[in-house]
Amino acid sequence: MLFLYAPDGRLRAGQQDSLARLRNLRGRNAVVLASASPSDLPDVVDGADALYWKGLSGFDFSAYAFMLQEVARHSPGADLYLQNDSVLGPFGDIDSLIEAAPWRLTGFLGSSAMENHLQSYALLFRGVDLELVEALEPVLSSRRALDSWKDVVCRQETRLARTASRSGCSVGALWFAPGAHEAETPLLGAAAMKAGLVRRAEQKVADPSLCNAADLIEEGFPFLKRSLFGRNQRFQERRRLERLLSLQGLSPEGVL
User: What domains can you pick out in the chain, each with its CATH number?
Assistant: First the structure.
């Protein structure tokens, strides 16, 4: 399933590319599209096996919760791959990665920013059923949607793996960052840097999808964050990312 956010009913080039790539994966593909009105659905999503419209309220977790319930009710026991449009891709042979994933809940990248957690732009659930949906209700609820990205990160994304694990699910990430707190600056150290008493130490990697994005792609990681060409471009060398994009038949124009 691909979640697309298109408030004006138009898809960016990067969204269209991700949609085309997901159509080539094994299994059926569904799109959940958020726009201002159902009449805004773009024609480009006609190739999806299933198409759902949702309002603009809520981030990816609101679409994920809905799709988990749909699969549990209509295809119980099926595996479900979820992706949002904050990333470009998937690149490479993601079918093989999905097939080899040994956990019931798989994240493609584990981040230690804030705390150890699975990044939510791509997730894989094995054997989706109503029992799993009920266990994940605290973080994947169809009854409420959060409209602040900070709330989504703090109350949903960082809690997902922990909530799933407590219900008995096996949980893991195919790529992961150093452990939580290893990259955090102690309070006294932060105060000393602010006062100019010490220099900032070399940054450790808490979120490899930002700090090590190009290296990850070269290692076979199948996603690249769109924000690296916008608000987070300071984290990577632009030319290197552009070269990697060109190998995938993409250019930075239109990805934001």
Answer: 2-176 (3.90.550.60)
